[in-house]
Amino acid sequence: MTSEEMVGSKSFFLKVIVLALLSRMLVFMVEGDTHYYDFVLKETNFTRLCSTKSMMTVNDSFPGPVIRIHRGDKVYVNVHNEDDFGVTIHWHGVKQTRNSWSDGPDHITQCKIEPGTNFTYEVIFGNDQEGTLWWHAHSDWTRASVHGAIVVLPAEGTTYPYPEPDGEELIILGSWYVGDLNEMLEEDLSIPNVTTPSSDAYTINGQLGDLVACSGSETIHRWSVDYGKTYLLRIVNAAVNSELFFAISQHNLSIVGTDGTYTKPTVTSYIMIDPGQTIDVLVTANQSPSQYYMAARQFVSYDPTVTDFDNMTATAILQYRGNYTPPDIPSFPTTLPSFHDLDSALRFLPRLRSLASPEHPVNVPIDITTRMYITIEMNVVNFTFEGSEISHIAASLNNISFMDPGFDILLAYYRYSFVHSFSLSLFCFHFVGSTWPDQKKQVASFEIGILLKV
Ligand SMILES: [Cu+2]
């Protein structure tokens, strides 16, 4: 290479670097907006099922405030804890790539936000996330009352992979407990073989509807629509532990998304939604202007002898705008499956398919280099609780259950020597059966792990 060529190639590389920096700046400029929210955790009184209780909320609301952004935006949420006990907030379904510090599970990625203090979360959404997600408390079972929706609209300048809806509505399904759920859980833990408490009723946008005790027309959520218009209904199952069926009388639901991704459109007369799941559906107001029940009820089991569950059906009303005489009683969705309708539950599940279009691809790794064998079990575990020996049912993963270590594991990981001082169960990994995964045997017992090897 001559000196002239060297100068030429140097200026060429300089141009490349400048162009790269400029394009990086341009990318930065179109990366999206930044939003700031303040969440104040505090006790608020609510009256349901004829009784008033105080429970933790965000900004006094149940469900809590909605985070509404466009794809590619960033959100900072400053959580101020004005309540009496420490909690964290988790951004359910938000990928938070390389941003675990803001993920939220207490004693996994952070310590609790103690009363009188605050913590600011930086919530980073994946560029492939669009639709509905949600947030909730991630300490004890406080999420029963501390939760809300996250709406991710298409990025500025883009639109939905279906005709733009005329409007939208959020439907947040929740559980209602007359008592304090965390106290009830604590009590149940001390009783052998008692499972987690059933809720007393289900809620739609915080209301139980008008089929339960001490309810009336003012205790039901109403959604007003215009005849002929199509709406995007964003449904979140924020119930603590139940799969729920949901249907709207005489109106079909066209499923278009779940858990912040688009699905192939499919028309159904009911949905089944798991706890933690979101489902987006299009609803066209194409029936006679009137009032129609929307209803949610639990899917329990195929076994009709199972009767110990929350058998309350939550209701809300879809009402058309305009002049008509409302019915004395709105029509009820006859397509809403019953508590033990396993067939309807199973029929629904395969309907969810990724859209997987060129604009919304699903990049699943195709080259498999490592195979992992993972067992998920519910077993009896023996442990000591307040001085007594207890046998209790608990979940395990690869024969290891989890006990809250009381410190932040992520932080401990970065202080490696600190981890080693707690390394009793650092790597405890065993299967039942001499060869795996060929032998499928009932795993009878497991250990309680407190640490994770990464
Ligand atoms: Cu979650």
TrEMBL record:
Main EC class the enzyme belongs to: oxidoreductase
Family: Belongs to the multicopper oxidase family.
Source organism (scientific name): Vitis rotundifolia
Keyword Manganese: no
Subcellular location(s) per record: Secreted, Extracellular space, Apoplast
Pfam families: Cu-oxidase (PF00394), Cu-oxidase_3 (PF07732)
PANTHER family the record matches: LACCASE, MULTI-COPPER OXIDASE
Keywords of this entry: Apoplast, Copper, Lignin degradation, Oxidoreductase, Repeat, Secreted
GO annotation, biological process: lignin catabolic process
Annotated Gene Ontology cellular component terms: apoplast
One function term, GO molecular function aspect: copper ion binding
Catalytic activity as recorded in UniProt: 4 hydroquinone + O2 = 4 benzosemiquinone + 2 H2O
Name the record gives this protein: laccase
Domain Plastocyanin-like: 42-155, 170-323
Main location: secreted
EC code: 1.10.3.2
